[in-house]
UniProtKB/TrEMBL annotation:
It comes from the Bacteria. Gene3D superfamilies: Spore Coat Polysaccharide Biosynthesis Protein SpsA, Chain A. Residues 9-154 form the Glycosyltransferase 2-like domain. Pfam families: Glycos_transf_2 (PF00535). The keyword Transferase applies. This is Glycosyltransferase family 2 protein. GO terms for molecular function: hexosyltransferase activity. Keywords: Transferase.
Length: 313
């Protein structure tokens, strides 16, 4: 592939879901202007046939196979080293892009925006039946017209397009934590971007399935979310960003209490002793709102909860 032809680098971490990875690849145009970088995070050879790994037949796909499991954050950072496109996009292996993907992003081919935000939707992976949107922040932006909602509260790297030179200049990378490893990446991009674009069209489909990171409720993942939230909130505080845009800490702490009451209780006490009262107010409003919506049937996530598993890991 000639460097001049590559406009879009799409980075996909993969672990043990080859059929879903193939579905994701099928949603990406097989064109010279696209560079697809798949980083396999030491998948199990009993599950994945590496002799016919998804994407190996395509010239615009680069497959990197790790010999030790490092997590999605490490995989994304490694993918960034090989990215040669003007634009960088991310996808999870079990998700896929909208059918109009190419037509949507090609509008920005010659633009100089640093970050472009798009809308998304969610389905159950096995049935493709629509469910509540895992990334409902875009709707909040539409309702409020407050771009800071997307800058600081849209924590996923998917559903966005990043200018590669901008990422390199600001040295923006993912955390390499078990969960929430893309929060800092998205947040720093939102913090540093001076030229951003918000496109209300749907670009990406985020799926929900058993075994994914969002359905595994375990100590390791929750503690990672708490660590990242504290780190990110401190960055926002140091940059004088209003506390209403900070991450909710009480939610993951209460989730931890369901699995490990002693650790969770200690963190909860520390939270109330050292968190600004205004942020406690926002966290309680956020968590309370979710509970009421679930109680009233607005958040119809019973199927999602059936998929969730609580584990002491």
């Amino acid at each position: 592939m000639e460097k001049v032809n590559i406009l879009y680098s799409i980075i996909i971490p993969h672990y043990n879901v080859p059929e879903l990875l193939q579905r994701c690849l099928n949603s990406i145009p097989d064109l010279p202007s696209f560079q697809v970088i798949i980083v396999d995070d030491c998948s199990d050879g009993k599950i994945v046939d590496f002799r016919c790994f998804p994407g190996m037949e395509r010239e615009n796909v680069k497959c990197i196979f790790l010999k030790k499991k490092h997590g999605a954050g490490f995989a994304r950072n490694l993918g960034l080293r090989y990215a040669r496109g003007k634009w960088v996009l991310f996808a999870d292996a079990d998700d896929f892009f909208h059918k109009d993907f190419y037509n949507i992003i090609s509008v920005y081919e010659k633009s100089s925006y640093e970050v472009v935000y798009f809308d998304s939707y969610s389905v159950f992976s096995d049935t493709l039946v629509k469910t509540y949107n895992r990334e409902d922040i875009f709707k909040k932006y539409v309702d409020t017209k407050d771009e800071n909602v997307l800058r600081f509260m849209s924590h996923s790297v998917w559903g966005k397009m990043f200018l590669k030179n901008f990422l390199d200049e600001k040295n923006i990378l993912c955390d390499e934590t078990p969960a929430s490893n893309d929060v800092l990446f998205s947040g720093l991009a939102g913090l540093y971007a001076t030229k951003l674009k918000i496109d209300k069209r749907v670009l990406y489909c985020c799926t929900i399935r058993s075994g994914s990171i969002c359905t595994q409720i375990n100590i390791s993942n929750i503690e990672a979310r708490i660590f990242v939230a504290r780190k990110f909130n401190l960055i926002l505080k140091d940059n004088y960003i209003d506390a209403k845009y900070w991450m909710n800490l009480i939610g993951p702490i209460l989730s931890l209490m369901r699995i490990e009451r002693r650790i969770g209780s200690t963190l909860l006490l520390d939270y109330f002793m050292h968190t600004q009262w205004i942020r406690i107010y926002y966290d309680l409003c956020d968590s309370g709102s979710r509970f009421i919506k679930r109680l009233w049937g607005v958040n119809k996530d019973k199927d999602m909860r059936k998929l969730q598993k609580e584990m002491r890991l």
